Input
Amino acid sequence: MAQKKLRKPALKKSPLVQASSQIVSIAKRNEDIRFYIHATIKNIDHQRILVLHVYHREQLIKDDTSPKFRVFLTKTDYISQYYIDGKPKWLKGRMETMMDYYSARTMTCNDASEDAIRSFLGDDDCFAWRLIQGIKSKSCISGYWRDIKSWKSRLTEKCSK
Output
């Protein structure tokens, strides 16, 4: 059976999640964290999709609770919706490029986000954010999905240390 493609019109209907006042408060006090991630698993267009809302600290400290971008992930595909001057633009580029990932420090917004990432990626034994951070070692997220089994075993070894 062929894999179902992500359809932009269906994804666009997914409501934006604004950053909570608690995250804004944390961002104002913590200069070390650059990006905050809110993760949920949604059923969109009959597909199980991990939705990552990414908030930039620079926006949060100005009380702008809108996400900088959001990423829609299935087990075989992904697409990002990046906001430029408040207008959405669809991107298929590398996630780490969008986040200036190599210099970025990130954290999830809450325990529910950690649980969503862990549940979606199927690893209950390891701190969930390490799974997302591991994506940065790949050239793109789709490359991550292609060799998830070998990568997960390496991650499990790292987490057990």
Remarks:
- The first strand starts at residue 35 and ends at 44.
- The chain has eight helices and six strands.
- The chain has a mean pLDDT of 75.
- Residues 55 and 154 are 29 Å apart (CA to CA).
